[in-house]
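Listing 4. Sequential folding, example run.
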Amino acid sequence: MADWLLSEYGGRKGGGFNYDPAINTICDAFRGKHSLESAVRHCQTHGNPKGRKQNVEAIRTLMPYILENTSLCYRIGLTAIAIGRYDGKTVYAKIKAPLLRVRGGKAFIVMPGLRLSYIPSEIAIDFACSVALSIFAQDDHEGADFEYLYAGPALGSARDFRAIHGRDRFRFTGDAIDRLLDIYVKGVALAEARGADTKSPILNGYRIIDPQAPRFF
């Protein structure tokens, strides 16, 4: 894990933009409060100008599916989960789950997969979405599925779109998630000991869940 973290993130600098403008349109769009034109206009006028073209491309890719699946929606928003601690430091997992939507009696925790060049592995998608379910699919929505909306690199110039649902995928159990996150935290500690720069996370705009316990899934 430490080797992977160092190879993936050791020399990588932070990006110049994010997909928050596109993500912020998803909830209202599922509610039927955005047309394609108004969603695009929002992305053209919000966020870092360096990322407006990418945000417009992403929302254009998502909107046909969203408009065909208008739903009752509950906004979840950006959430940071404390997944472990070492040497007095806390390791967080950031989850960009903008909403829980309900359509035809079925509930979905919606996760955006908006990418510029990086293509996540299939198991990475399953794991991230399983973690989101373990956190958000509770109480009245305990039976919710996950819905990962991929809008990212494809062959040619256009973005690819995939609506990925948990019913068709491998879903990690709570115990498996807990074990893997423990390995991840230990990997972060080892990577730092080998020179990785582990700065404090930027959590502005994130709801923080920190149960103050080493195991909580």
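-- end of first protein; second protein begins --
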Amino acid sequence: MRNRTLSKIGTQLLRLRHDSSQSSQDRAVPADYGLDHRQVAEFVAGTLDAEGEAALAHQVARLLPFHWTWPNRVAEEMSQIMDHVGDQRELMAWLDRHPGLPRLVARLYVFMGLLDRYSAVPAVVTAMREYRERTPYPPGLEPYLVPATGDDTLASIAFRVEKLVGEGRTREAVELALATAAWLQQIAPRARELTPEVGDLNELMGQARQDIRAAAADI
């Protein structure tokens, strides 16, 4: 994952997400998900060994899709971890250093951050709407899109990606992310015609596809 991609997203990647019928609040942390208290304490103290850090990264990756409903103890320890690494973007950079689920989850959250960034940009919304007048459902997205295109279209897809990750359906989350990124690359030239400031959309989506594919190959 490149620093340039991280620099293009906000610092609040763990946010309440929703679509037309569901919200992140509807999720509950599975009973077998949690954090090893000793590993958290040692990580924050800077004494956790590499094996323990990899295990902790895996625990954190499993918990992220349930961020809105973390029990108090989990929320407190996650806050300690985030304070130690810096912020939510730095948390993703830390997870990205651990192959497997942590890296994949980190890259999917960065992709969700990109969707949040562009979701309400008028030029992007207009370009998506014009595309759908010709092709109502881009390849791979028919199960996830409602007929109307608006400011919440990409944000709704971000919700679906996060939900799939929380359900352990990482392969489907990857497919949805890749299909969405491919669609945005297709509409990027038109969006740039409308607003030159979104000229990096194509490049960012191409990098996201590459990053997500590479991480998924390790799962």
